[in-house]
Write a structure and sequence with these properties.
The structure is a homodimer. Chain A contains 8 helices and 11 strands. Chain A has about 240 residues and is an alpha/beta fold.
DNA sequence: CTATCGCTTAAGGACGCGTTAAGGGCCCGC
DNA sequence: GCGGGCCCTTAACGCGTCCTTAAGCGATAG
């Protein structure tokens, strides 16, 4: 899960980013509008937290352009209490939620999780596929009744695959959503993580939850098991 | 599906091409206008992605000449944000859509898919013929309710035949739309792929979805509803 | 009947992926 | 501050899949 934080107050930004990283997000950050615009449109972001009171291109500009470009990831805006009226414009520009500064860190986390949940169309913060269960709020993973210990990156890979269960996810897509910045990992990290995941999720090698599609990527089987696509919709 | 990418920024071009190849396209690429002009007019391109800010013959020139030559494959233009006004000229010259740099890779892919879909006159990204179903977005193939695993090239052949169901497709046409560059395969690759396709799509040999027209090529039977846009391109 | 074209099969080789092990960084406890 | 352990990362190697080619056979048209 890759988050973008655009906030010019360095202290506040650090605070937010540290917390998000602790919670398992890959975080891109900037305090500058122009750079923020670039990240917002160029990087494969899953959620953005944008301060409205920016120098350069304002937060509103960024939101508007992102939406105009057809990107639909959730955007949460931050606004100073003194200018809380701005939130209206922000929401009109295409933001999904807002938080008024100052705020409790927990509050922000909760809103972010809610937005992500909503954007996926999941009512519950729990992902299931076969006998694999992922609790995204507590970042716990179960296989059947058995609790499984995953490392940070193992979890990120699994969560992303579970969120896109049934779809073919390329290794570069995984890399992009799991690492920050342009961190081009020209190695086989993903293969290694997938292997560890497989051996932890399915030590016997009987259920094969993650299949490989040579040259294309990986696919985590949805419980329905390769159903016929009942027509595509909702990007 | 054969794509042409004309973009002088080498990094960006590589990024685009890598992604397209991963998504199953045969990709011709160049950063030079003159060469781009040649490819655009001589190769059997299915879709072109052209940067407007080129050295030599500009992107506009290429588009204009391509259209003047009577080729009607979809063209998507790339334009820097600072010069977004150029898009108007581009569209007037005959381009079909535009993306402003910087952009998110997913965004470009989505636009390309949309253009291809539109150019074929298909509302849905799903091709059907008899009991064969091809989901072009996920590159999945079903025969009846059964999911069929195809290799990369098997899929390319099938997709092309399905897109032109009912038409007689020569082996050289298949070769040209499936491979990049001038890669003249003077062998019987196509015959081999067709055989593998036949045995996977129709193991019993009863339905005969792909028929051979000796000396002319192959034809995938289209049953019933299946409209084709009036198409006069693709040498 | 023969020449040409297509079908079938098998084998070679290239390449992607799996697998393993080892190095190094970071954090935590002592 | 120091040591140890966990985990990320990389690299090497082996294996399997898939692409490609070629050769032999069958079919078809002239």
């Amino acid at each position: 899960m890759r988050a973008l934080v655009i906030e010019d107050d360095v202290d506040l930004r650090e605070q937010i980013c540290t917390r998000l990283r602790q919670e398992g997000y890959a975080v891109d950050e900037t305090g500058e509008g122009e750079e923020g615009m670039f990240y917002a449109k160029e990087y494969p972001i899953d959620i953005a937290i944008i301060d409205l009171g920016l120098p350069g291109p304002t937060g509103l500009d960024i939101i508007a352009e992102v939406r105009e470009a057809g990107l639909d990831y959730p955007i949460l805006i931050l606004t100073a209490r003194s200018r809380w009226q701005d939130k209206v414009e922000g929401l009109e520009a295409g933001a999904d939620d807002y938080v008024v500064k100052p705020f409790q860190p927990e509050e922000l986390s909760a809103r972010i999780q809610a937005l992500l949940r909503r954007s996926r169309g999941w009512a519950q913060p729990r992902l299931e596929s076969g006998d694999i269960i992922v609790d995204t709020t507590r970042q716990e993973v179960f296989v059947g009744d058995q609790s499984i210990d995953l490392t940070a990156y193992e979890y990120r890979v699994l969560e992303y695959l579970m969120l896109h269960a049934g779809e073919v996810i390329s290794k570069t897509a995984l890399t992009e959503h799991i690492y920050e910045e342009n961190a081009e990992r020209d190695s086989n990290v993903i293969e290694v993580f997938v292997r560890r995941l497989r051996s932890k999720l399915d030590p016997d090698g009987t259920r094969k939850p993650i299949e490989t599609l040579r040259g294309r990527g990986y696919r985590l089987s949805r419980d329905g098991r390769n159903r016929r696509p009942a027509d595509a919709s909702s990007s």
